[in-house]
Amino acid sequence: MNPASPFLELEQGPRVSVTFDGAQLELPEGANLAAALLAAGVDVLRHTPVSGAPRGPFCMMGACFDCLVEIGGVVRQACMVEVSAGMDIAKPRGDADGPV
Amino acid sequence: MDQFDLAIIGAGPAGMAAAQEAAGHGLRVVLLDEQARPGGQIYRDVDRAGSLRGDILGSDYTDGRRLTAGLRHDGIRHVTGAVVWAIEEGFRISYTREGRAAQLAADRVLIATGALERPMPLPGWTLPGVMTAGAGQILLKQSGVLARRAVLVGSGPLLYLIAAQMVRAGTPPQAMVETQTTADLLRAMRHLGGALRGWPYMLKGLKLLAEIVRARVPRHTGAVGIKVEGDGRAEAVRFTSRGRSQRIACDTVFLHHGVVPNTQAARSLGVAHRWNADQTCFAPVLDRWGGTDVTGIFIAGDGGGIGGAKAAEIAGKIAALRIAELAERLTEVERDGHAVPLRAALDRELAARPFLDAAYPPCAEALSPEDKTVICRCEEVTAGKIREQARLGCLGPNQAKAYGRAGMGPCQGRYCGLTVTALLAEANGRTPDETGYYRIRPPLKPVTLGELAAMEETPLDKAEKEITT
Ligand SMILES: Cc1cc2nc3c(=O)[nH]c(=O)nc-3n(C[C@H](O)[C@H](O)[C@H](O)COP(=O)(O)OP(=O)(O)OC[C@H]3O[C@@H](n4cnc5c(N)ncnc54)[C@H](O)[C@@H]3O)c2cc1C
Ligand code: FES
Hints:
The structure holds two protein chains of two kinds. By secondary structure, chain A is mostly beta strands. Chain A has one domain (about 15-90): Ubiquitin-like (UB roll) (Roll), CATH 3.10.20. Chain A contains one helix and eight strands, in the order βββαβββββ. Chain B is an alpha/beta fold. Chain B is globular. Mean pLDDT of chain B is about 95; it is low at about 465-469. Classes of the chains: A mainly beta, B alpha/beta. At the A-B interface, strand 1, helix 1 and strand 5 of A face strand 8, helix 5, strand 9 and helix 19 of B. Strand 1 (about 5-10) of chain A pairs antiparallel with strand 9 of chain B. Bound molecules: flavin-adenine dinucleotide and FE2/S2 (inorganic) cluster. FE2/S2 (inorganic) cluster binds next to loops of chain A.
């Protein structure tokens, strides 16, 4: 549990290491990535391309696209991805393999 | 390409019930859902939730296991984690799964993609820490993650359900900032007859309210002038209730003022939609079997009009009966015989709706936001910009796209479409039907080049290659 996070976790399971913007985090294996990041105290996942405003997960159901992150160079919705060991996550930069 | 009698998009109550009914009559069914597990929004991840979560969420949630169990049938192929991005004539369905695009074919398609939360553009709603109340509930259902200091803002039965679930989980909301007024309740009284026929719902609602009151969660009704404040993230909710201006500090704000049909897939096929004034949203025009004006395309569940989980389940079965009859697995007489008890049950399920719709109308200031408020989250277009476009002669949402990019981001208008229609209709003095909605074209969800390049080879591609080599 992360006391600095506005969120708390009901259950504790095995954790794996991932990185977010270079910082190492221990997240529950197989958990929803957006939920796991929120519980770890990470609430800004990207900055908007238009004004640079910070954004975090909003709908948790794959509809709003505010949770976009880059995982291993591919832009994905964090709320539609499960945590696995060694994930290399970053705020999207705009030159990754994105939508066509 | 694999061929099926019926493809169902969405494994919520509507899609799961339809799959079971159709397979029971001998159809070969494929059920596609972008989630890793069946359940849809109400029964999200119900098979994985432990007993603690089950207790918090209640028997209305764990009841979903009955439907997920029904998917274990030889006639049903459930493709999990499949994001459907195109449905084309024929019907050919394109989807992405595990980073690869793939296709399959089906004689008929049932769209059971459910609802989205009604967009709630209030000042500060784009700040990190502000989420939909449904998102808060998904965090609990799917991940067992709870907000320590949250304020719930808006109106509607789902807001009370979520508040009660937070109470049971030991993290009651700091406060409920409710937008409905006593006048709304009085207006709703003329639907009381229907509401009494739907008494189990009313009773459940009263029980939820009692739970919230017992936990001493402060309730502020008739709230206006609502805004989320914060520097880079949500820090407080400010509003006026009963003439008193208030500020409640918090870390998380959950917004909700009802759900609306997710019409993206149906619209991409050109299915006719009409404005529903009672539910303040567009809904597809359906016959009594869920059939649309596009031959072979059916819609069931909240995607066809908001009725809730039980109504969705029944509508899924009714659509499956008609599809089984068209596929000549049932006679018309058999179909109608099976449908009689279902229609009676559906009537009962829908009896309380008119009361609920009138008692908990959408929040007025989110339907017509102030000029400075961002209404298109993706492209950061404000309400003022849309009004300005109307003054320049913009009549419909598709023109608004060209004028100022609203609706052109990755969410494809899911969280601004209804607002843009409402703003243009208001500014131009026209009805929502006259104003219209965004034209939706595939891909329904963004597809990457990498996913397309990894596309599974279809038999047709193989044949072409053999001919050319
Ligand atoms: C966030 C949220 C929470 C809710 N919680 C409750 C609740 O607790 N209790 C309650 O009574 N009602 C709740 N509702 C209302 C809900 O709409 C109905 O109760 C019920 O879930 C509707 O069932 P359905 O089968 O029509 O659709 P849903 O249950 O919404 O199922 C639709 C399914 O379609 C899938 N889908 C959508 N688009 C695609 C696509 N392009 N490709 C692949 N799959 C796709 C989704 O992943 C989803 O699983 C909630 C609604 C929302 C939006
Ligand atoms: S939070 Fe909305 S798409 Fe992920």
